[in-house]
Amino acid sequence: MDGVQWIKLYTDMFDTSRKIKYIEQMPRGDTFLIIWIKMLLLAGRVNDGGALYITPTKPYDKKSLAAEFRRPVKAVAGALDIFEECGMIERSENGIRILAWQDYQNVDRMAEIREQTRERTARSRARKKADSSATCSATVALPSRDCSAVERENKNIDIINPLSNAGARADTRVYGAFQNVLLTEAEYEDLSKRIENVADFIEKFSRKLAAKEYSYQNHYAAMLDWYIADQQASAKKKAESERKSSFEADEFFAAALKNTYGGTGSVSG
Predict the structure, then answer these.
(1) Mapping DSSP to helix (H, G, I), strand (E, B) and coil, where does residue 140 land?
(2) pTM, two decimal places
(3) 20 phi and psi, to 5 degrees?
(4) Is residue 132 a contact partner of residue 151, using CB atoms and an 8 Å limit?
(5) Which long-range contacts link 118-121 to residues 24+ away (Cβ below 8 Å)?
(6) Which of 7, 101, 152, 224 gives the lowest tally of CB atoms within 10 Å of its CB?
(7) Which of these, 239, 226, 237, 162, lies nearest to 194 by C-alpha position?
């Protein structure tokens, strides 16, 4: 489901909302309110009636929200308890949902975006089916292969390699502050296993794309290349630092020998 680029926030929300005033006066009120605004923005990116999830079958919890917002798990857990107490969210086995979500978005515009998404998906499927039919019609050397077989093989490719062709699959979702990083659930999970702070890494990648410094066909593959390059650069820098430290140590001991015994400070076996 396509996310939105903006949500509605009333300019007097800190002056007229009793719930906001109540939270603001708490010892960690400022932190809680930052988390609240981040939750609203995340719900806009998900664009599903205020629900917060990574995929429809994988909802956010306090730990994944903490990673997403770059906040301590304890702070996020405390904020969720307060928000639920104030009737701002509901938590269930299906995850977390922002209540009164219609107050923060243009409902008609959201419905329009969802309809546009359905239309784009239908057109994409129609093009794939037409391309598959055209390929079968042109392939006279393979009489035993019909169009349905080719379609089945194409589907099998997606199943065997879930990290390929992310832009064409329905499970692709958007990430990053600029909503321009496309990853599937499998790709996001794989990056999370490889990269210690994947949220910061995605934000950096998102900023580079937004600045039009880079353009990639497959964001997952590009981010893996970035990560490997960073690891290699860090290893090289560490090795150079160790060599420099070793050289400086040798120089120190040579000077110490020279001051103590005179001579050149060199040691022969």
Answers:
(1) coil
(2) 0.42
(3) -65, -45
(4) yes
(5) 121/170
(6) 152
(7) 226
